[in-house]
Protein: HNH nuclease domain-containing protein
Organism: Edaphosphingomonas haloaromaticamans
Amino acid sequence: MAKAVFTTKVSPVYDDLPEHRYHFPKTYLNQVEKAVGDWIVYYEPRRSTGDLSSTGGRQAYFATARVDRIIPDPVRSDHYYAEVSNFLPFTRPVPFREGGHTYESMLAKPDGSTNKGAFGRAVRNISDREYDLIWRSGFGHVIGLDERPRPAPDAPEEPWKPTSLVAEERAPFRFDIPEEQDRRIVEQLVSRPFRDRAFAAAVKDAYHDTCAMTGLKIINGGGRSEVQAAHIRPIEHRGPDSVRNGIALSGTVHWMFDRGLLSIDDDYAMLVARDRLPDTATRLLNADGKLRLPGRADLLPHPKFLEYHRREIFKG
């Protein structure tokens, strides 16, 4: 087994749904086969679509997942799907190079320039050490290596720019990770408490700590957000820990959403179960009946998860 990087665009050319599958041509079959049973990181390139002139991609690693198996594409004979599980977004996107360090050694030439030939490969195998560095940088806030500063309730909102783990003075051992740590990392990645913390951090950040259905943003006296991260397709129904399967909701609204009293249409209009909620509850909701959503299209609730909630959870 070997870990790998899977490249996927904001608007993929292939039939990717990173939470569940990665679509790839036969060119990369050998690299993907090596990753079966092991962990990968997803990378978002600069190009956001198949158009060579497109831009807007973050040029960053943004999530991790485990490769379960490879199945042939039933329509295209020279293409395959890698089915994945345990998808988890990083709480901060990790640039491929930061602090003077390139996370994937194959992407750096001896003179410090970028190896564009290697970078052009959509699937790249990486070492355990390289994966661990990316993982630690992506989840630094969750594992206590990077604390997010919280403004005072009346302070103007500013974007958070977390310190890179690579440049973090508190981690002098960062380039000398013992092999046994890889096992501990895997144990955390499948741990429900860790995944809950990472999912909540990613969803709250995407929604700027604001309830999508009420517009309320409450920061307590300790500087912590009171908003909660809700799964659209529940985890007990095999829903992934993805921002696209999440929504930030206040406690009461989260309770109503989980019990099918509220749902969401494909145009992000709120749906209310008829005759099940009093007027005092519906008056909490945004007056225009629409969600308050993240600014990035790739963070919006995915239609597949919304459809599942309406079909299996909603009581309307």
